[in-house]
Amino acid sequence: MKYGELEILNFDVEKDLEIWENVHQKNYTINVTLPEFTALCPRSGYPDFATLYLSYTPDKFVVELKALKLFINTYRNKSISHENVANEIFDTVYNKIKPKWMKLKADFYPRGNVHTVIEIDSNDFK
Q1: What Cα–Cα distance (Å) separates residue 59 from each residue in 24, 32, 97?
Q2: 55-101 residue pLDDT tens
Q3: Residue 9 lies in a domain
Q4: CATH no. for residue 46?
Q5: Which of 11, 92, 115, 118 could bond 106 through an S-S bridge, CB–CB 3.0 to 4.6 Å?
Q6: Is residue 126 very low, low, confident or very high in pLDDT (cuts 50, 70, 90)?
Q7: Within-domain flag for 4
Q8: DSSP for 1-31?
């Protein structure tokens, strides 16, 4: 196994989704695009591809980008629905960094004439 495969295989979200202290007091937005997301369809096993757009206004913490990338890559062999992917990723990151505001948009590539976009905004549940 190559080192990247081992990092993904051994990634533990509780200890490896690293967060850093936000040293800035002002409000600002961090926008992260993850254009190579993959997971497996729980019904067919076919791969699902998506671009994830994560935006947040940090409070006390920010998520370290390599750790975020590794976390996202752990889904590549996981059987999970589009809705569950978006909610699981949102909840994990949101609960870890507790931002002032966060939005996740999961834009899945069309497959079988269906194009799914899932958006979760923390303003909708505060």
Answers
A1: 9, 17, 8
A2: 999 999 999 999 999 999 999 999 999 999 999 999 999 999 999 99
A3: no
A4: 3.30.1130.10
A5: 118
A6: low
A7: no
A8: --HHHHHHHT--HHHHS-EEE----S---EE
Predicted confidence (pLDDT) per residue in 88-123, tens digit: 999 999 999 999 999 999 999 998 899 999 999 999
Counted domains in the chain = 1
Residues carrying an active site annotation = 41, 48
How many angstroms separate the CA atoms of 4 and 79, rounded? 20
Is 12 a member of any domain?
Answer: no
What is this structure's pTM?
0.95
